[in-house]
Sequence to fold (516 residues):
Amino acid sequence: MIDWNPLLLTFKLALITTVLLLVISIPIAYWLAYTRSKTKPVFETLVSMPLVLPPTVIGFYMLVAFSPANAFGSWLDHWLGLRMVFSFEGLVLGSLIYSLPFMVHPIQAGFANLPPSLKSASYVLGKSKLTTLTKVMLPNIKPSLITGIILAFAHTIGEFGVVLMIGGNLPGRTRVASIAIYDEVEAMNYSAANTYSLILFGITFFILLLVYLINGGYFNRSKHD
Amino acid sequence: MIELAFQKILKSSSGEMILDVQLELKEKQLITLYGKSGAGKTTLLLILAGLLSPEKGLIKVGDELWTDTENGIQLPPQKRNVGFVFQEYALFPNMTVRENLLFALDKNQPRKIVDHLVEIIDLGQLQNRDTRTLSGGQKQRVALARALVKKPKLLLLDEPLSALDHEMRIRLQSYIMEVHKEFMLTTVLISHDVSEIIKLSDFLIEMDHGQIVRQGLPADMFTSDRVNAKFQFTGEVMKMVKQDFIVIVTVLIGKDLVKVIANDKEAENLAIGDRVLIASKAFNPIIHKIN
Fold:
């Protein structure tokens, strides 16, 4: 029988990361979709960096920045009681950065494809920017939001490099499923590695299938007469 | 009185153009903006609604200053109390017809205005429909009703009827006339259709390349005394005035208004809006030399 803790930890991490990312990404995506600022390309690049950067690079710099041996890390530790290195909090922060583009990009595209007259119409009807966002814009980019949520969740499940660098391999705290697989292989325990792998394979398959079904509109048919 | 005096630089595919507007609009009138596409008509409406701001200038509605670039005043669209009907309708797809109207209500505004509008614009049957399933004319009616929920003083209509077929147009024209009168609105409408303009509007403004080129009464601006050398025309009856034994029928042919005399019997069969044929008999043709 395998140890279920790494899998539970993986899903806990993915869930927390996804919820936080959704909250963070809506304003970022809104700004990127509508700004005319000349600094936009810089911010777009920063958001997209985790797509191409080796996760170990992110993990390495986070390890350096948050190490209690350094000024910032010790300040966090001393004043906020936060130790980011080799902790679950650190994993969450790493995952937020690592999965950011997977949440921001679909939402940004959703905003950009929304007819501008919807926003204008709501403003002319006297509705504030916030009301317009929550009552008009977000409900009309639901498929983009769902895509972002699913992709960010799936991508966090598949995380390895960042987690290993900043979290290490502490059972029950930072040993997520992807690390556990690596660990079992190292220990020549192929059957356990195979079980973890199969479970992750199946889950990611169904998650991605869901994205394509939603984008293909399979759930919207016959809803309206 | 609505005073407009502003400039805005417009960038389009054909280069830069300056929208330069100097206008005084009388309240409670139905005013039509007419002109080629790209003349700046839609931009003028967007600036009036506060959705765009001019580089320089002033907009004054009654005693209220809506825009005054010199003193940094630019009232946001939320505070202008304007009704706007967009060319592409802009109905919210996540709401039903009724929800679209309810969304437009101000906080604490009684709902009875929604029921009233549903009644006068005949939306009763459509109330619970998904807006994506409506026809163009139905969408336009919903957009018109939604724009009126807040009881605006100023109603702006961006080519509301251009995408509709003839019959639907006539129906919507009468809805617009009805609400214009009932709500005592100042209405600014963009239109390319001469018969529509003559039927609906009190005042006509023609724009070209960002400039106001002509303004005046619609009938004056479209009537000309050019000789028309064809023997028969088709047109639309605009007006019928009875004088003693005859009826003077005003017919719109192309862009010209022509007055034709009809006797009582002929006039009996005619109504405003009818398509008619005007033919000249062979014994009084006009002869006009062409070089």
